[in-house]
Model the fold of this input.
Amino acid sequence: MATTSARGRRGSNPLVVESISEQLHSILCERITTGVYAPGSRLDPQAIAAEFGVSRTPVRDTLVRLEHDRLVETRPRSGTFVTRPSRQDVHEVCQLRKALEWLATGVAAEAMPIEQITDLREEAVEAMRAAERGDYEPFFASDTRLHREIIAATGNTRLITARESVEPFVYWLRVLGATGPHRLAGSTRRHLEILDAMATRDVAGAQEAAALHLVEVEEWTLADMASHSIVT
Done:
């Protein structure tokens, strides 16, 4: 039996009926976190449904999920809008990351293979060199990989899921903020401190560097977003 599908504007890949809500969530999440939908902009469920040729039900389900992700908010009698992140949002996300990654870094400092630590370090150094040439994408890829692999090294599925739950918001805050050389250099310095401590199996040193890194990330994110009049 043929699978019913609805074709959207995103390339030539159809949306499969059995996973429309999942695919819509992925697409709309990407549009928000990459800035296609700006903070404060209104989302029209009817227009979204028409764009992808689907009913209002999967669109409504997707918007509920995005609201749970804190990426959109519904205002009574007004509609659904892309969230304008507050200082409290930034603080809460960084505080959660600090708690999770402090624990994960301690475990990774004992469990992660030296070869993997060395590879992450070499990538971080090369990414900083690329950033100095004006190419920031390698840094973002290296940053994402480093934090993801430290979390994964715990083997704790609940901890991994908790970290993944804020990943879209973390990426979004990065996109909304400025890409200042001071921030990339500061983050790289902390990344190397974390990895160097892990390489010597210095659990306390790795955790201390990880905690300080997240404190600095919060400060830089707020400063960057304030300079763009984004944070409330």
In short: Residues 1-12 have pLDDT under 50 and may be disordered. The longest helix spans residues 87-111. The first strand starts at residue 5 and ends at 7. The radius of gyration is 20 Å.
